[in-house]
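Archive maintenance. Older records in this collection stored only the sequence; we are now back-filling the structure field for every entry so that each record is complete. The fields below show one back-filled record exactly as it appears after the update. Entries are processed alphabetically, and ATP synthase subunit c is next in the queue.

ARCHIVE ENTRY
Title: ATP synthase subunit c
Organism field: Vagococcus fessus
Length field: 65
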Amino acid sequence: MGSGIAAGLAALGAAIGDGLIVSAAMNNIARQPARESAIKGMMFIGIGLTESLAIIAIVISFMLM
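Back-filled structure field:
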């Protein structure tokens, strides 16, 4: 049961983090449209890192089971 809760919290944290990253990127693109490609590149790197941390947390929770 504990590993299921840990996996759920990892997924929830990743979803919240992705939302914050995309929100900040959209605000920055609205302020500086000329730097859209650089901002999008950094956004995708941030989303990738956030998702990888969630996957690692889920794998660790299953290993502890």
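Update note: The helical segments are 2-31, 36-63. The mean pLDDT is 93.
Entry marked complete.
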